[in-house]
Amino acid sequence: MEEKIRQLEQKIEELESRLTHVQESLPQDQLSMVVFSGDLDKMLASFIIATGAAAMYERVVMFLTFWGTTAMRDPGKDIQKSDFMAKMFGMMLPKGAGKLQLSKMNMAGLGTSMIKGLMKKKGVMSLEQLMKTAADFGVEIVICEMSMDLMGLKMEEFIDYPNISVGGVAKFLQEAGQSRVSLFI
């Protein structure tokens, strides 16, 4: 009888250990999002989803890479760059959320102006307002370190955003690996 009790206790310990392992590997209450596009419509969708998700999840992490980084550039900051390619990217890339264009029907900027006017008329928040709301809701933004390096971007040229950091693909994979939901825009 003592042997059976000892075996039963051993099984219970094994099950508790397995349960602990399962609980530790469950996704966290968070959303992770890669934002690759720097198009106005896609950036609007990203921040609409992020602010909506902030009401549902404990954490929302946006990983901005390549063209997605341009929305975070501060048009009021003029950062001098010594590298020729960094200067070229600095001149060619949109400088901030207000300079992004539509991915479709841009029509030399007319489409972008039309959609911004329509959004204002219908009471839809602008991208800048959505970004501020996201910041107020605690949405975290990770800027891709490799993209910054390739395009010659520096942290000091980004807007003042309370939850912004720099990270690589490992940071995103870590966040996505523990997220309940992961998106790519």
Automatic annotation (TrEMBL):
<protein>
    <submittedName>
        <fullName>DsrE2-like domain-containing protein</fullName>
    </submittedName>
</protein>
<dbReference type="Pfam" id="PF13686">
    <property type="entry name" value="DrsE_2"/>
</dbReference>
<dbReference type="InterPro" id="IPR032836">
    <property type="entry name" value="DsrE2-like"/>
</dbReference>
<dbReference type="InterPro" id="IPR027396">
    <property type="entry name" value="DsrEFH-like"/>
</dbReference>
